[in-house]
Amino acid sequence: MARTPELHDDALHRRGLMFILSSPSGAGKTTISRRLLAHDAHIRMSVSVTTRPPRPGEQDGRDYHFTTRPAFAQMVEQDEFLEWAHVFGHSYGTPRAQIRAGLKAGGDFLFDIDWQGTQQLYQKAETDVVRVFLLPPSLDELRRRLTARGTDSDEVIAARMARAQAEISHWDGYDYVVVNDDVDACFRKVVQILAAERLRRARQTGLIGFVRELMRTED
Ligand code: 5GP
Question: pTM higher than 0.85 for the full model?
């Protein structure tokens, strides 16, 4: 799909936003995130720091900033994270510096984080955060998506379902909830949410001067 820079090419300065997309696995978050990044030149992925070793194909600086446990602990100590968490035995965190500079310059960031990370970000930066949660269309469809690989045992699938349902229970900690029954329709809704949130008055930091000019009395 064509990118749409014109959405944004207004002369007024705008503060960027932190767009959080969460969902249980199997609800289509990865697909929607990829499409959003490909479609819109003004949003980029927030790249987290992690102590997890890289998986095949992952690139340092693109997928994550890979680091050691002592280096991560030092970053925590020096308060360099906007939020951080232990997930599946590794540490993950959002570096504060890149976000702060990016938002000020009018850049938007996409976050692929769970409900705990979402809560932390919201507590730290409430006015910059937009929280979107994707839901699967039904329990059957969730099970189908989580078993699609066909090689997993019933036990593994049951554990995956339980994890997905635990994540779903946090649906009420989000500003927007989209049921992903059709990926194109879901994507369009997510794009609309982003477009509307960019127009919030408080984010349009260039408005004051602009409106002042509109209100100038002519002699
Ligand atoms: P993975 O190791 O599969 O890339 O990610 C494991 C989990 O860590 C995912 O649920 C992902 O959402 C979460 N995660 C990745 N980066 C961060 C982060 O910066 N903060 C938090 N809280 N969670 C993260």
Answer: yes
